[in-house]
Amino acid sequence: MLPLNILYQDEHLVAVHKPSGLLVHRSALARGETQFLLQRLRDQIGKRVYPVHRLDRPTSGVMVFGLSSEAAALLSEAFSKRQVEKRYLAVVRGKAPEQERLDYPLREEDGTRPKAEMPAMPATTDIRRLDSVELPVQVDRYPVARYSLVEARPMTGRRHQIRRHLSRRGYPIIGDAKHGKSVHNRFFADQLKAPRLLLAATYLAFDHPLIDKRIQLSCALDETMASLFEQFGWGGHLPLDSVRTPPIAALTVRQR
């Protein structure tokens, strides 16, 4: 088993590239699973790690953990207060809008009660089409198939928010078994060697909870998504692994 790609680590935090298909921690909904990101990361670095936020199992990309309960609690609070900048890349069906704010309330999907009984919570996602492609194949009822590369910036943190918002707007993410369309999912899996949810968390930026600096993390795509981008001529949009840690004071000076 390959080691996890650690993007950043100091005495308080560690950030890692979560592979698609890997659960973050043990769950009653996945009793048969034996591999979890939290345990693998703990064993790899030899330290206990504390979860701060979440990524869906099929989503890949950057995740940050605390190396103490204090650091995790402080950073988790920043996520709750929407003080963390998050960016995702998604491959969707159709030619997505050039730019749009999706503002659709969402009911929670936590499995404790029927979704219809859950209250609808405010949810906002900003999307931007970065590129698109038209393939000369009939996948659905049209003689050509169109797909878009979308950057999504969730302003809130509802479960499956990006997936549900894009699906409701009419541009479901490829590989989404629950909110997508199976004929397009099968086409990507069988013909384009992309059998996963094509959603990746590529950027996180936040003020360090215990050190006077801002952490800006960029995360490269895995081989499946990177290869697909090259096939579609989207190579110029491939993110790279990178870390920037400017002092918060310096940022404040530049913004004046």
UniProtKB/TrEMBL annotation:
**Reactions listed under catalytic activity:** uridine(65) in tRNA = pseudouridine(65) in tRNA
For biological process, the GO terms are: enzyme-directed rRNA pseudouridine synthesis; tRNA processing
Which PROSITE patterns does the protein's record reference? PSI_RLU
Organism this protein belongs to: Vreelandella andesensis
User: Which InterPro entries does the entry mention?
Assistant: PsdUridine_synth_cat_dom_sf, PsdUridine_synth_RluA-like_CS, PsdUridine_synth_RsuA/RluA, RluA_PseudoU_synthase
Give all residue intervals belonging to the Pseudouridine synthase RsuA/RluA-like domain.
12-167
EC numbers listed for it are: 5.4.99.26
**Pfam families for the chain:** PseudoU_synth_2
Its lineage opens with: Bacteria, Pseudomonadati, Pseudomonadota, Gammaproteobacteria, Oceanospirillales
- Keyword match Cell wall biogenesis/degradation: no
Question: Under what name is this protein listed?
Answer: tRNA pseudouridine synthase C
